[in-house]
Amino acid sequence: VLTDPILMCGATLANYLSLPYVFFMRGFPCSLHYEAPQCPSPLSYIPRLFSFNSDHMTFLQRVENALIALLELVYCNYYYEDALKLSSEVLQRDVSLLDLLNSASIWLLRFDFVFEYVRPVMPNMVFVGGINCVQKK
């Protein structure tokens, strides 16, 4: 199943039918596209989205980065609350957000790694950058 993880319908359906699924996305809120496949993303080196920090942070910027990461967890739990209730009803078991995301076969990340901060990626994460480029006339 090729799905976008913003709406958890595809992941729920794939888990229900016991099918492998592939995520195709630009990015995931709360940096779950690095947490779910268990990719290292240390807060002291990788700036969070909307922090406007670079990868060379001062101590206070690192603290700010950690606080943003904590707030993102609260935001994500609230944002996906209804989707997780629906998934729990369909799958007839308690489901967490990471349970749905962990079992993805391949993560097709739709951005160029040269524009992102350096971080390790897992073998099932594939960068497919440049797909939105238009050739010059």
UniProtKB/TrEMBL annotation:
<keyword id="KW-1133">Transmembrane helix</keyword>
<dbReference type="Pfam" id="PF00201">
    <property type="entry name" value="UDPGT"/>
</dbReference>
<keyword id="KW-0328">Glycosyltransferase</keyword>
<keyword id="KW-0812">Transmembrane</keyword>
<keyword id="KW-0808">Transferase</keyword>
<dbReference type="InterPro" id="IPR050271">
    <property type="entry name" value="UDP-glycosyltransferase"/>
</dbReference>
<dbReference type="InterPro" id="IPR002213">
    <property type="entry name" value="UDP_glucos_trans"/>
</dbReference>
<comment type="similarity">
    <text>Belongs to the UDP-glycosyltransferase family.</text>
</comment>
<protein>
    <submittedName>
        <fullName>UDP-glucuronosyltransferase 1-1</fullName>
    </submittedName>
</protein>
<dbReference type="GO" id="GO:0016020">
    <property type="term" value="C:membrane"/>
</dbReference>
<dbReference type="GO" id="GO:0008194">
    <property type="term" value="F:UDP-glycosyltransferase activity"/>
</dbReference>
<keyword id="KW-0472">Membrane</keyword>
